[in-house]
Amino acid sequence: MNDPRRTLLDLFAAAVAAADPARCVPPHLPPPPRGRALVIGGGKAAAAMAKTLEDNWPECWPDGDPADEPPDAQPSRFAFPAVSLMMTQVEGLVVTRYGHAVACDRIEVVEAAHPVPDAAGREAARRMLSMVGDLGENDLVLCLISGGGSALMAVPAPGLTLAHKQAVNKALLRSGATISEMNCVRKHLSAIKGGRLAAAAFPARTHALLISDVPGDDPAVIASGPTVADTTMSGDALAVLRRYGIEAPEPVLAHLASPASETPFPGDPRLARSTHVLVATPGMMLQSVAARARADGLEVHMLGDDLQGEARELAAAHGRLALEIAGRMRAGARPAVILSGGETTVTMQGTGRGGRNGEYALALALALKSHPRIHALACDTDGIDGSQDNAGAIVAPDTVARAKALGLDAMAHLANNDTYGFFGPLDDLVVTGPTRTNVNDFRAILIA
Fold first, then answer.
1. Has residue 91 got a pLDDT over 70?
2. N or C terminus: fewer CB in 10 A for the chain?
3. Topology of 283-447 in CATH?
């Protein structure tokens, strides 16, 4: 292993490739309906998923009864009697983050703000609800859902405004709440999340292709589950606000106290024709990277794809583990890599710039104590860590020493949540631009 930095970057590239919509979407396209095929979607991968769908949706199908096929059946031109041909073109609307668009021919792509919603996302979501409202039982709503969809599909519940949702969202992002807790609140303040999109489309059949970015891959949490029944209640959302000391606007509290804020529960007849399939997950991503690492001669230590908690605390624990493994390695042993995924949190205490992966990387650099044989990388697979332009950062044995030579105090930057300002001058930010997919965080610690 002559170049640890290159090895880490190659592993991250393999992580992103494993969740590329062009690779993971085509095997899961359903058969066409007898009626219309309407595409609706939201998330950082939504535009790339839409483009892949267009590229792989056949113009003609053998005339038969494709709607009777299982919703997750793989399409085949030979599934039905080849007597005549039927045409079912796709059309629709998806919303993605600014800078994540991909040009499509028949599916409209709208860009909007993330992680705090804006008017563009609100209007896109309103249009989606209008588009599915007049469909019949022979029609299919094909939903392309990925991480980020919760903020991007941001139509408020009746009686609430976009400003109300923005205020709550900003407070949640700074609070240290988990993604499940944040999405619990978001669902009960929305007119489209928590199964409401599928309910609005009924009696049409709804089928969602999901790229998971959440620990545990719960479809009800991915983008706040617009097509999936919700098991949380408004009281749970109020409990989250209380738990993190969030002072929500009075209309928000009044709405959450109202029965109108409850989402469709399991067993709701409006969701009887709604199905979904996971096409990419953090676990699938990590297994693909592990295979690549083993092929490159690395010994793999897998910590799991669903790790949560404060980024700096997880980094401290991983640092201790890496030092322990390094201490056990004998001369001539194969290099090792510790892999993990999931979504950490950062409770903001300072005024700096950065994201949870930068926070993890800086805390890890301190925990590793400049060990000469350990390098690491922490990046978000969507290419954007927090609200900056980097995916994450790389840690080397001399990270803290090089920073000190530049007058950068690692402890002070960590205390100020200013990891972007720390790794930037070191040229250790990983900048990929939008990857147009999202299976959450990827972390690799390389032990030579």
1. yes
2. N
3. glycerate kinase, domain 1 (3.40.1480)
